[in-house]
Amino acid sequence: VDGTWTDNEASGSGGAIAMAGSAELVLDASVFSGNGADSDGGAVYGAGDIEAADVSFTNNVARAGDGGAIGGDADLEVDGGTFDGNEARLGNGGAIGVEGDAQISGGRFTDNDANDSGGAVWSEGSSLEIWEGTFFRNTAGASGGGVCASGVGDVSLTRSYLHGNAAKSGGAVTIQDVDVAGTLANLRVTDNVATQDGGGVW
Q1: Strand, helix or coil at 70?
Q2: What pTM did the predictor assign?
Q3: How far is CA 84 from the centre of its chain?
Q4: What angle do CA 160, 72, 111 make, to 5 degrees?
């Protein structure tokens, strides 16, 4: 799927696109702007596999669910792209909120906001891998201003830059209820703020 998707609305999930069942959704060089959903996935919702390469998500909102840009029970693979100004107004994952395995390579996450956890990214799957991501000025009302991994079996955050993110706990990153110890390597973590615990990582 490619093209430009602007100002679409859904009273359920997936303001622009919703894929049910085990269907695979592949997004390539698309633009999603100003879309909204009352539940999960302000722009895109999936229950199968989602692949997004060089996709732009700007100012999308999930009003009462997870994932201001992308949400669902899907396994997710992101390669590059930008996520700017997306919002999970009452949920987790200002840009991305998924309950499946997530792999993120590259990508720039700026000014995203979640009412709960994961200002940019929230994952509750078997694994979360982030490589060379950039997280600037994302905010969460609870945990993980940039990234929150909750109940994930394996977490890896490598060669990424987290700056100016904010949350109640874990200004940049929160890793909680994880079965296997997380791997944090070659990170640049600067000027993040937590009002309670762990200005950088909690």
Answers
A1: strand
A2: 0.96
A3: 11
A4: 40
